[in-house]
Amino acid sequence: MGVTRIVGAILRGPEDVAPEAWIVDGRLTYMRPAGAVDETLAGVVLPGLVDMHCHVGLDPGGAVEPDLALKQAFVDRDAGTLLIRDAGSPSNTSFLHDRPDAPRLIRAGRFIARPKRYLRGYAVEIEVDDLVDEVVRQARAGDGWVKIIADWIDRDGSGDLEPLWPGAVLAEAIAAAHSEGARVTAHTFSRDSIDPLLDAGIDCLEHGTGMTEAHMSRAALAGVPVVPTLLQISQFESFAALAGDKYPAFAARMRHMGQRRFAHVRAMRDAGITLLMGTDAGGTISHGSLPDEAAEWVAAGLTPAEAVAASTWSAREFLGMPGLDEGASADLVVYAEDPRADVSALARPLHIVLRGVRVGP
Ligand SMILES: [Zn+2]
Q1: CA–CA gap between residue 10 and residue 333 (Å, rounded)
Q2: Backbone angles phi, psi at 113, to 5 degrees
Q3: Cα(120) to centroid(ligand 1), Å
Q4: 55 C-alpha to center of ligand 1: Å?
Q5: Distance, CA 88 to ligand 1 centroid (Å)?
Q6: Alpha carbon of 282 to ligand 1 centroid (Å)
Q7: Interval between CA 275 and ligand 1 midpoint (Å)
Q8: 25 CA distance to ligand 1 centroid (A)?
Q9: Model confidence over 17-30: pLDDT tens digits?
Q10: Sign, CA torsion 52/53/58/59
Q11: Lowest-confidence region among 1-5, 219-223, 338-342
Q12: Statement: residue 361 has pLDDT above 70
């Protein structure tokens, strides 16, 4: 087994930089090994990027074949994403765990929604009374996460965003997931589902576009992070246009939330919420978009350093996964420039190393 030497700035944390490290047998060490060095990589080194909201095994039509799911995972990997929390998939992508060349994947099982209350072909569709049992089923099928659709347009009712589940049922379901050792995250666009989710002990919020300042304070205090998915929210204008005259309240709400997205994400940051980065790739967003999502954060007025932390150290800590620690698997990306100075550097990785092996283009 060869030894790879890494020199430059190895960013173990926002304030923790090492000048030199080695990869031995796929693992990272800061103690100089005895063997000869086969290869030296130089640059600014980040832990493998984390996409907190990425649907491997999904495309606009729903579930995809394993070959395509693998291709999606490779596209993510080649953009530097070496750890994915999938935030729901209609496909069983557990075969990716056996692929050493695929990014690490933390699956959330299938999306859980009610009939006609989410995108067709994506979710397991159940009635309210079945939520607790279904959450337990998906907790057992996934890798420690469950994904609930908390709100969606109610075309047969108000014609606006409405919660899918009564608060008491949500609370029972989330408690059941926790008993299974799983955490729960929720798709939420609306204002009305946030308090019931927080009351129920939700572990993470996706999108969070309907959050008020009071919601933001609550989430910050409870330590519940938000994955803001700015690329997705930039599409709200087109969702509004599609809803058009038929659902005017929904269209107006979506348009408003889309337009205010930059100010809204800054307000979340200012409220003290932990923001984690996710692309929402798989439906309409392309895989491999994490550098683009990071650029959106900076366009919104967050700092490049915040964008980097949200896609590396903070996300890994929240998921319970190691970063550039002594003895950890060497999952890292090397850049010529520091992405904390210029976020566009994330789109130009020099080297991508997964499980100690050079991968990527
Ligand atoms: Zn999504």
Answers
A1: 10
A2: -145, 180
A3: 13
A4: 7
A5: 7
A6: 8
A7: 16
A8: 36
A9: 999 999 999 999 99
A10: negative
A11: 1-5
A12: no
Assigned token pair, 278: 């996710």
Q: Specify the pLDDT at position 35.
A: 87
Q: What is the mean pLDDT of residues 5-23?
A: 98
Q: What is the pLDDT of residue 1?
A: 60
256 CA to centre of ligand 1 in angstroms: 20
Token pair 């994904």 in the structure block, residue: 147
**What spacing in Å lies between the alpha carbon of 54 and ligand 1's midpoint?**
7
Nearest to 194 by CA among 202, 280, 243, 270: 202
Tens digit of pLDDT for each residue in 31-61? 999 989 999 999 999 999 999 999 999 999 9
Tell me how far the alpha carbon of residue 171 lies from the centroid of ligand 1, in angstroms: 22
| Residues 276 and 265 sit within 8 Å (Cβ to Cβ) | no
| Through-space distance between the first and last CA atoms of the chain, rounded to whole angstroms | 23
- The pTM for the full model equals 0.97
pLDDT in tens, 81-122: 999 999 999 999 999 999 999 999 999 999 999 999 999 889
**Residue-range domains of the chain with CATH:** 3-47+323-359 (2.30.40.10), 49-319 (3.20.20.140)
* pLDDT computed for residue 148 by the predictor: 98
d(CA 351, CA 83): 16
How far, in Å, from the CA of 8 to the mean position of ligand 1?
A: 36
For 164-173, how does the pLDDT look when each residue is reduced to its tens digit (9 = 90+)? 999 999 999 9
- Determine the distance separating the centroid of ligand 1 and the alpha carbon of 207, expressed in angstroms: 9
- Expressed in angstroms and rounded, the spacing between residue 354 Cα and the centre of ligand 1 is 25
Give 116 Cα–ligand 1 centroid separation in angstroms. 17
Share of the chain above pLDDT 90, in %: 97
How far, in Å, is the centroid of ligand 1 from the Cα of 58?
10
Name the residue with tokens 């283009």.
Answer: 361
Distance in Å, CA 337 to ligand 1 centroid = 31
Angular region, 192: left φ>0, alpha ψ -120 to 50, beta rest: alpha
Alpha carbon of 130 to ligand 1 centroid (Å): 22
Which amino acid is located at 328 in the chain? A
Instruction: Output the CA–CA distances (angstroms, integers) from residue 194 to 40, 66, 289, 302, 315, in the order listed.
Output: 49, 35, 27, 23, 22
